[in-house]
Amino acid sequence: MSFSFYGELCTEVYDLTKKVGQSINGDLEYYYSRLKQTEGKILEVMAGSGRVTIPLLEKGLNIEGTDYSSQMLASCRNRLAERGLHANLYEADLQKLSLPHKYAAIIIPAGSFLLIEDREQSLQALKRLYDHLLPGGRLILDLFLPDNQFEAGQTSPISTYHMPDGDMITMESTLVETSFFHQYKVSYLKYEKWREGALIQTELQRFALRWYGVEEFKLLLEHIGFQDIVISADFEYGKTPDSNSECFVYEAVKP
User: Fold this and answer.
1) pLDDT per residue over 86-125, tens digit each?
2) Distance (Å, rounded) from C-alpha 255 to C-alpha 251?
3) Pairing relation of β-strands 42-45 and 63-67?
4) Number of C-alpha atoms within 13 angstroms, CB side, residue 82?
5) How far lies 32's CA from each of 5, 45, 212, 252, in Å?
6) Rounded to two decimals, what is the model's pTM?
7) H helices present in 69-140, as ranges
8) CA distance linking residue 125 with residue 221, whole number of Å
9) How far are the Cα atoms of 79, 111, 177, 222, 224 from residue 104, in angstroms, in the given order?
10) Residue 67, number of CB atoms within 10 A of its CB
11) Which long-range contacts (CB under 8 A, 24 or more apart) does 176-180 make?
């Protein structure tokens, strides 16, 4: 599947900046409020290192996780073990997803669905998620629109991350490709790890981001077969999206 690969240095930065239980603009509280009455298994797709999965598990939800990145899943397993917890975690390509269970709810927080660069693969992934839901099961995910940087060659200021062990990781992002027609843009993220002033490791990540119009994505969900679709703005259930909204949360039901 064509989406961004999370390597070792990227995962270290992810773990530092997206801690277990850290809410991003209220997303953790929102997902819990929408899931707390769920009877049956829940699946977090593109679960990363457990920022959302672990606190929902701690709150008593029957949740599992899947991700394409073995690095992210290894981090999630470590975080679970540190807390004396266990959850089934699956390394899987969404386009070919085939898990042993069907779910009462599937969630994709943090706009992660946008990391699937190819539109046809996005549709195939939605079909696989649909097939993994029980009748009456819900898909809940959030999306956002891109920022206003679209000129290829633009480089963002270098970000610096001070790691707990004293190492330092820097990250520089350069926009290399934009397609308005195909609704995606691609950046290269260069990670460098430093120890006592010496460069000890480098990593280059291709980071692609697709976007969808607010109503366009609703039509895609309907095309797959979902019904009773509710679009909410900024993690307030039922709030009508407008041009000032920063994110759009979709909740859709498999009949």
Assistant:
1) 999 999 999 999 999 999 999 999 999 999 989 999 999 9
2) 13
3) parallel
4) 10
5) 28, 15, 25, 16
6) 0.93
7) 70-82, 119-131
8) 11
9) 25, 21, 39, 19, 17
10) 25
11) 176/152, 177/152, 178/150, 178/151, 178/152, 180/150
Residues 70 and 8: their CA atoms lie apart, in Å, by 10
Q: What is the pLDDT of residues 219-235, one digit of tens each?
A: 999 999 999 999 999 99
**With contact defined as beta carbons under 8 Å apart, do 160 and 170 qualify?**
yes
- Residue 172 contacts residue 137 (beta carbons within 8 Å): no
55's tokens: 């606190």
pLDDT at 5 (0 to 100): 63
- Res 2: pLDDT: 41
Residue 123 tokens, joined: 């549709």
**C-alpha–C-alpha distance, residues 147 and 235, integer Å:** 19
Q: CB-based burial of residue 189 (10 Å sphere; 0-12 exposed, 13-18 middle, 19+ buried)?
A: buried
Which class for 229: exposed (0-12), middle (13-18), buried (19 or more C-beta within 10 A)? Answer: middle
Q: What is the DSSP letter of 29?
A: H
Cα 105 to chain centroid distance, Å, stands at 16
| 113-151 exposure pattern, b = at least 16 Cβ within 10 A, e = fewer | bbbbbbeebbebbbbbbbebbeeebbbbbbbbbeeeeee
Measured CA to CA, the distance from residue 2 to residue 164 in angstroms comes to 32
Cβ(71)–Cβ(11) below 8 Å: yes
How buried is residue 205: exposed, middle or buried, by Cβ count under 10 Å (0-12/13-18/19+)? middle
